Amino acid sequence: MTLLARLFSLPVRAYRLILSPWVGHGCRFQPTCSAYALEALERHGGIKGGYLTVHRICRCHPWGGHGYDPVPGSDPEHDAKTGH
């Protein structure tokens, strides 16, 4: 993981440690946004992984999507179906 990706992952790790137990498990997507963020940062680095994380979080609202939404490149079969 790049230095920038590690820096961006700190708030996500803090959220998972401190806030996630209090918020509960009501995520609309699989994997959860925090798991998605950590995988995107690890797989794609700080800039692209950060962009993918922000894009995913912006879709996480009552009128947004739901269901299986893996990080691009982590599931080649899903990527082939969706054109990523």
From TrEMBL:
Cell compartments where the protein resides: Cell membrane
Main location per the UniProt record: membrane
Topology relative to the membrane: Peripheral membrane protein
Record-linked InterPro entries: Membr_insert_effic_factor_YidD
Keywords: Cell membrane, Membrane
Domain of life: Bacteria
Residue intervals passing through the bilayer: none
Pfam families named among the record's database cross-references: YidD (PF01809)
Residues in coiled coil: none
UniProt keyword annotation of Cell membrane present: yes
Compositionally biased residues, Basic and acidic residues: 75-84
Disordered, as annotated region: 65-84
Family: Belongs to the UPF0161 family.
Function recorded in the entry: Could be involved in insertion of integral membrane proteins into the membrane.
Protein name as annotated: Putative membrane protein insertion efficiency factor
UniProt organism field: Fuscovulum ytuae
